[in-house]
Amino acid sequence: MSTTAPLNRLSLTLKIALASILVGIIATFTTVIIAYFLFNDVQQKNAQNHLSSLRNILENKLERQIEFLKLDSQSLAQSPGIKQLLYIKSLETIDSTIEASFDTCHQSLSEHVKQAHYHDIYLCDPNGKILYTTLEPKSVQLESTLLKVLCKETSKSRQTVVQSSDRGVERSSNYLNEPVLLAASALISGGQVVAILIIESPLSILNATLSISDPADRGNISASTEAYLVDASLSPRTILKKSGLTKVDTVAARNALAGNSDVSIYKNYAGTTVLGAYARLQIDGLPWALIVEQSTQEALQPIHHATWILGGLGLILIILISFLGFIFAKTFAQPLVTLKETILKVASGDESARANVTSEDEVGQLAHAVNEMIVERNAVKDRISTENKRVQTNIQDILLVVADASEGRLCVRAKRTEGILGNVADALNRMLENVSALMGQAKNASAQVQESSSEISASAQNLADGANSQTQQIAQTILEVQNLAAEAQGVSENSQEAAKAASQTRQAAEEGAKAVRDVVAYMERLQESVQANARKITQLGERSQEISGIVRSIGDISAETDVLAMNASIEAARAGEQGKGFTVVADQVRALANRTRQATIEIEKLVMGIQSETSEAVKQMERANVEVENGTRQVSSAGDSLSKIVEASVDSSTLANQISQSATQQEQRAQAMLQAIVAINQIAEDTRNRTLDFRETSDLLASLATELNKQLANFEIGTDGSSDKN
Amino acid sequence: MELCLFRIDHQEYALPMSNVREVLNRPRVSPVPLSPDILSGITHFRGQIVPVFAIDHLFENFNSSPTLEERSRILILTQEHQTLGIQVDQVDEISLPDELGTFFTDNPPFLLGMALTHAGRSFKPTSLPRLVQSLSHTLSNVTLNLLD
């Protein structure tokens, strides 16, 4: 988990690059290591083969040289010169001719020694006594145990024997103290060994052979290559590069002397690690070992070179693979990065962004799909914005209608559209229609109220007029009654003039009765008019009840509208961001409903005012009615009194005496009547005042009705036909 | 969070707008026989039978609940798959509260506290799950479990 987390955070480019670099590094390492081992193996084998072939060549050369030495000694032993020399040596006396031939032989032998780079050639008898040497031809002073042993061995085997020695034959003269190679051949005459010929050759001739002077043999073997011989006592038999050593005690020398031959790596006499080939020389009498060495450092030089070259090549390859890996990663990841950037751009609102990927692979197809998706998304977005615009327009239409309606133009209608806004428009239209119908009814009712109130006003005017004339008549009646009182006084004062006065009284009383009847008639008319007024006012009260009923239903409708608008708000809130505009509409509708409710409350207040005023007017009418009835009753009783006066005045002429008696009574009655009339007058005055009050009330009613009409006129209801349709 | 403000007995309460489905004006509410007073009855709402509650029965200082004629509006509420109606005096408006503080947590337990609107009006936010819990608790003695 801990390793995948940072890996996941790496970009795709880096991942592909790292993967390819990793694979490249592994492949390069594997290749370089395999190549190194293969090359190392081949090189080592090559060096070994070369060394062993060199060893074989040297071995052959040495064998040939020693064989040549043997052949040379054999041929010398068979040569006639030696036989002649031996013969001359056996002579006791030597003359000059013999001397000359001896010299000739000696000369040719010396020549041969010089040519073949020998030390010397000895001629011994089978017992080892030296008969002749090329260095001391005349007198031989030498005694050599080495030669004696060799002569004995040769005469025994009768074959050519080769032997080596640490030093040459000892002499008194200056002689090289170095190892020598001796080859001895027997001279056989008549089946008897007569003498032994011994060639003494320095080992340095072998040095020349081992110095590997032939360029063809050298090959790639360099200066560090060394070939040398070791004898059975581990002493070097050739000159070593490191001088002064008397023993070569190495693994190779021991193995070679033991008869093995191999190529291996070991430490040589100088302590250097070398690659060496060794073998035992197969020459009779010479149990030597031939060793060819080369320092491993030099032999394996190409391997070191190859290691460096391979390492360098590997490094270059890794750099190349890293570079290629980055290029591949960029190539493969670039379309995906472009795609990601495009999607981010689209997400941040850039609609014109398109993935510019031209490849035909899966990434290319994905890019095409993404492009199509972006186009599709833009189309969907456009569709939504178009739909939004349409809804906006519809909402604006509805808002215009609502604004018109709130200003009182109820004849406007909202356009019907699809969806929930259509339903709202329908509901709004229905509400507007209902409201305008109700307003129409209210207008009609109000007009009727106005009409009725003007009728009431006219009636009140009539009533006032009647009351005025009544007052006048009553004033007249008072005068009459006062006259009557005066007359009655006159009767009491002047009983003689009673009869005349009686008739005058009767006449006056009749006139009074007539006046009283008129008053009664007026009173009755007044009563009728008051009752009619009361009926009208009661009707007005009923009308205003109807208005309040209508206003209540308007209130109900506005409450219903409020709920409808509330539900619209709730639906809009559910719609979320899309419903914001619609919430505004719903709020407007609610405001309209509230305003309608406020208007209905005001109307209701007005109607309540009308109703209270009406009931007050009706009460006043009733009171006036009662007063009028009282007045009528009293006036009627006045009439009755007058009739009695008439009767009395008829009898007055005959009952003159009684007149004087009753004159006082009559006067009292007249006074009472006067008081009654004054009371009547008072009542009539009251009636008139109340009628005026009533008129004021009815005027107020009329002005209220007018105000109501004005209020209702604010609403444009539209044509009757449209309101009737719904 | 948008809130729906409504009034019961001159007190303003609020519920999250997400719980409110509709306001019904004078729907026909059929009384359920032998049911407690808190259950006003059942009504139809979009082809669904919905219980209607007079939640002022849950208030501590409850005196007497107005009849359905007097309190005619029903607020239809939903919570997951439950739908129920409560009698309200009036549904006022949808508003966003400025501050929602809990100043008291006494009865009834479904009130969350007090809140203020920008106009300075105070109301009591209500939690519908807790209200339903209270109703369930009150109705636990009744075999008819309309809330399930």
Structural summary, described in words:
By secondary structure, chain A is α+β, with helices and mostly antiparallel strands. Helix content of chain A is 72%, strand content 8%. Chain A is built from 16 helices and nine strands. In chain A, strands 2-1-5-4-3 form a five-stranded antiparallel β-sheet, sandwiched between helices. A four-stranded antiparallel β-sheet of chain A has the order 6-9-8-7, sandwiched between helices. In chain A, helix 2 (12-78) packs antiparallel against helix 10, helix 11 runs parallel beside helix 12 and helix 12 (419-493) runs antiparallel to helix 15. Mean pLDDT of chain A is 80; it is low at 720-726. With 148 residues, chain B is mainly beta. Chain B has one helix and eleven strands. Chain B has one helix at residues 128-138; strands spanning 3-8, 11-16, 20-25, 39-44, 49-53, 73-79, 82-88, 90-95, 99-101, 114-116, 122-125. Chain B is globular, with a radius of gyration of 15 Å. The chains are: A alpha+beta (726), B mainly beta (148). The interface between A and B is medium-sized, with 10 and 14 residues.
Characteristics of this structure?
heterodimer; A: 726 residues; alpha+beta; 4-stranded antiparallel sheet; 16 helices; B: 148 residues; mainly beta; 6-stranded mixed sheet; 5-stranded mixed sheet; 1 helix; 7% helix; globular
Helical stretch tally of chain B: 1
Most strands sheet of chain B = 6 strands, mixed
Indicate the proportion of strand residues of chain B. 35-45%
Measure the end-to-end span of chain B: 27 Å
The overall pLDDT average of chain A reads: 80
Helix fraction of chain A, binned, reads over 70%
- Structural class category of chain B: mainly beta
Major sheet of chain A: 5 strands, antiparallel
The gyration radius over C-alpha positions of chain A equals 85 Å
Largest interface: A-B, 10 and 14 residues
C-alpha Rg of chain B (nearest Å): 15 Å
Q: How are the strands of the largest sheet of chain A arranged?
A: 2-1-5-4-3
Structural class of chain A: alpha+beta
Distance N terminus to C terminus of chain A? 77 Å
The secondary-structure element order of chain B is EEEEEEEEEEEH
* Quaternary state of the chains: heterodimer
Q: Tally of extended strands of chain B?
A: 11
User: How do the strands line up in the largest sheet of chain B?
Assistant: 8-1-2-11-10-9
- Any low-confidence stretches of chain B, pLDDT <50, length ≥5? none
- Provide the residue-averaged pLDDT of chain B: 76
Q: Ranges of chain A with pLDDT <50 over ≥5 residues?
A: 720-726
